[in-house]
Structure formats: structure tokens, C-alpha cells
Write a structure and sequence with these properties.
The chain has twelve helices and 16 strands. It has 454 residues and is α/β, with parallel strands linked by helices.
């Protein structure tokens, strides 16, 4: 780290003390993970880096993935003792021996385990989006408050060091002047366009339990190089279907929308409108949109969203990010950098890049499938959760903030589906004068599962 980087890092530390509440939380944390795939392990291993963590239990309906996660945790902890493993999260939570539960399942399985975890007395780190319908999210918020549990949502842009730097140096001092408009966008070609054959699930994977409250689709995932080359829906295929989530709006818009909300203290949008659909990639089995725009009308200024899973990015340097327009300048933000441009200037006046901590955490260089530019943010995010646990306060990405950002994205999808704008009553959690739309705030669960909103 050179002198300039040291000064920049010190400025960020001073401006955002929640990021580094402690170099390492030494009080032992008994943790459990539900959903042992890619990001579940990323979150858990970051917790192990910054806290005295005893990983007590792991849960997944894929027995091979579960066993592999247990081996990874034991190796990282440098012990022969592996965590207890479960295929049913209810059995895991029945023990009531966990301080923190991390939930990194596919989106359709966020609500029920999170509510069960707070009922079991645990604090929770739950991945975004928190739910697949609005009433699920509201039930999660009510459960957290009822049981007085701390719930952090995995919208870690709020704990990203270089974005906090932008907030402190540009947004808070008012360098943008009067903000009139903000854009959030994603141009990644991330829509799966496969048309695989229906097959049988491998014996080690409980597809019925994985489907849970969602509609039971034919088992048709393409092979992703899973164990024995077996097709596995939880290796990303599920993101191609609205049955399990909310498409690219629910996956990618929520991060950038939540970042803008946090950076400029935005609450609920008053109105949401959206249009788009499957306009280009019509031959695929995927039923999520390949093209979509949305407008979120906040009292302060409107925020628009655009995604395309085809064609080229509007700005090759910012294929996924946010651009904030003020009368005194423009601020561009992404997970890779930020830049502030005064009016009429082609070169940024201020800028920043991600914090890498290889000196402290050399394993970041070699960990499989790791997004290295994001790891400092996840560490800060789990540290913020631990600090909130100690003080019994709200974390930076409290469940209420996660609910607002998640529900806003769901409303965008409902607007596109219905073909009209939706006016939101934030006090009553209803869409104004639209009975048809309000019926879609809670989607039906599959037989055998009970929706948490009743």
C-alpha cells in the first residue's frame, strides 16, 4: 500500500467506523449455514476470517455439496472436527445452539428458514433479495422485530470500502449539487438460454425438498460440471425462472437500487413502473425477461433501471453499476471503481477502487470461485452484523432496508406483468386502488407449505 492509498483508506475508516468495528471479533460466534453453495461458503468463510467462529452446523439438500462444505470448513479451521450436517433446516434449528444463521439458498427458500431462525433465537445474515413476493418480505420483517433479532441482508454495497469513500467524498458533501436523476443498469449476458432435456435427479440431491414452496417444474437443468457431470439446478439454472426468484431485476437491480437508496437516504418509492419482456432470446426455456426498464419514483428524484442480456453495454467501463446526475457533476459507481466528473470534464476529478487485503487474508488469492474485489465488503458486512449483535442495534443493511429494496424490485416486475404503473402506500403496504395488483403481492405456495403471511 503506497502513501496515497494509505491516506485514502484512513479517510474511509474515519468516515465509516462501522466497517472496522474491530480488526477481529474475539468473542466466539456459533454459526450455522443453510445453503452450502458458492455464495454460502463465501459468506461463511469471510465470517471465519474476522471472528472467532465455531461452525456448528451446515444444511443443504445436496448431500455431496454438504459434505464438501464440511470438508472446506474443517480445512479452513485447521481441525479434524467437522460441523454437524443436515438436509432439513428445521432439524438443524431445533437444536437452538446457534448465535448466527447464514442463509444462502436460492431466493424462493429465503423466507421460511429466516423466520424459523429468528424464532429459534438466532441472529441472521440472509442473502438478497430477501423474498420472492412482497408479503413474504413483510412477514420476515415482522418476525425479526417480534423476536428482537438482528438481521443483516447481503446487500453488501453498503459496506463496500470504495463506495463508502464515494458517499463520504461526493454524496454527503453535496458535490453533485441538485440531483435530478439516477440510472442503475446491468448489461451482463447472464440469462441462461439453454433448452436441456428432462432427466432424473441424482440420488444425492433431493429435488422435491429443493423446490420447496415453489411450483414443481420438470427436472431439466443442463449439466454444469457438477459431481459426475450431473445436471444441478442450484448451480445457476434456477435463476432463469420466475418460479424461483424475480429475474435479473431481483438479482442485480436490487444491489444497485439499494446502493443508491443508502447513498442518498431514499426510503420507499411512491410509484413504480416497468416495461419489457423476452424481446430477443425467444428460443430459450428461460422465462425471465431479456430486456427490461423500470422507473422508481422517489420523493427526492427518480431512479431508472435498465437491463439487457444481449447486445453491448451502454458504457463498456460500467456494465453493471449506477450513474447519478446532478447539476454540478456526475457520479459513476460500480463494484470495480467510482468516478466523479464535474460538468464538461471528460476526466474524473475524484475516483476510487476496491480494497484488496491479501496481506491480511492471503487465502483470498486462491479460494475457488471467489470474487476477490468483493471480499473486503463481505468481511465488513459480517463485522457490522457482529457489532449490531453486541449492541442489539440495527445493522447497516437491516431487514427493513432489505424489505424496501426487495419489494421495490418485485413491484417493478408486477408493473411489467400488468402493463401499468403501481402507486405504493408505504404505510399500509398496499398498491393504491388496484385490487388485481394487490392479489399478486402474495403468491400461492405449493401444497404442503404454508405461506408466512397466512
Amino acid at each position: 500500500m503506497n502513501r496515497r492509498d494509505f491516506i485514502a483508506a484512513s479517510t474511509t475508516l474515519a468516515a465509516a467506523p462501522h466497517l472496522f468495528a474491530a480488526a477481529r471479533a474475539e468473542k466466539r460466534v456459533r454459526a450455522g449455514l443453510i445453503g452450502c453453495g458458492w455464495y454460502g461458503k463465501c459468506d461463511l468463510l469471510r465470517l471465519m476470517q474476522v471472528a472467532n467462529t465455531e461452525v456448528v452446523s451446515l444444511c443443504d439438500v445436496d448431500k455431496k455439496m454438504l459434505a464438501g462444505a464440511a470438508e472446506t470448513v474443517a480445512a479452513r479451521a485447521k481441525t479434524d472436527k467437522k460441523p454437524r450436517t443436515y438436509v432439513d433446516y428445521k432439524e438443524m434449528l431445533k437444536e437452538k445452539d446457534l448465535d448466527v444463521v447464514l442463509i444462502a439458498t436460492p431466493d424462493h427458500w429465503h423466507a421460511l428458514p429466516m423466520i424459523a431462525a429468528v424464532e429459534a433465537g438466532a441472529d441472521v445474515y440472509v442473502q438478497k433479495p430477501i423474498s420472492v413476493d412482497v408479503m413474504e418480505g413483510h412477514a420476515m420483517l415482522e418476525a425479526a422485530r417480534k423476536h428482537k433479532r438482528v438481521v443483516q441482508v447481503g446487500t453488501q454495497r453498503r459496506s463496500t470500502p470504495h463506495l463508502i469513500d464515494a458517499r463520504e467524498k461526493v454524496a454527503k458533501p453535496g458535490l453533485l449539487g441538485k440531483i435530478g436523476y439516477a440510472e442503475v443498469y446491468c448489461y451482463y449476458h447472464m440469462r441462461n438460454n439453454a433448452t436441456p432435456q428432462v432427466s432424473k435427479p441424482p440420488e444425492y440431491f433431493d429435488y422435491d425438498a429443493w423446490t420447496g414452496p415453489a411450483p414443481l417444474r420438470p427436472y431439466d437443468p443442463p449439466p454444469y460440471g457438477g459431481p459426475n457431470g450431473d445436471p444441478l439446478p442450484h448451480r445457476g439454472w434456477w435463476r432463469a425462472f420466475m418460479e424461483y426468484g424475480n429475474g435479473i431485476v431481483g438479482d442485480m437491480c436490487i444491489h444497485m437500487l439499494d446502493m443508491v437508496r443508502w447513498m442518498f437516504d431514499l426510503g420507499w418509492p411512491m410509484k413504480v413502473s416497468s416495461a419489457g419482456g423476452i424481446l430477443v432470446q425467444k428460443g430459450a426455456r428461460s422465462n425471465i425477461s431479456d430486456t427490461q426498464t423500470a422507473t422508481f419514483d422517489f420523493p427526492q428524484f427518480p431512479v431508472t433501471w435498465t437491463h439487457r442480456t444481449w447486445g453491448s453495454s451502454a458504457d463498456p467501463e460500467y456494465p453493471w453499476g449506477a450513474t447519478i446526475y446532478g447539476d454540478k457533476g456526475t457520479l459513476k459507481l460500480s463494484v470495480h471503481k467510482w468516478e466523479f466528473f464535474p460538468p464538461g470534464q471528460a476526466k474524473p476529478k475524484l475516483s476510487g477502487t476496491p480494497l484488496f487485503e491479501y496481506d491480511k487474508y492471503p487465502e483470498d488469492k486462491t479460494e475457488k470461485d471467489l470474487e476477490q474485489h468483493v471480499e473486503s465488503a463481505i468481511r465488513a458486512h459480517v463485522l457490522d452484523l457482529l457489532k449490531a449483535r453486541e449492541t442489539r442495534s440495527k445493522p447497516v443493511a437491516d431487514i427493513e432496508q432489505g424489505f424496501i429494496s426487495t419489494a421495490s424490485c418485485i413491484l417493478a416486475n408486477l408493473s411489467m406483468r400488468l402493463g401499468r404503473s403501481l402507486t405504493w402506500d408505504a404505510a399500509k403496504h398496499v398498491i393504491v386502488n388496484d385490487d388485481e395488483a394487490n392479489k399478486l403481492l402474495k403468491r400461492p405456495y405449493r401444497t404442503g407449505y404454508t405461506h408466512p403471511a397466512g
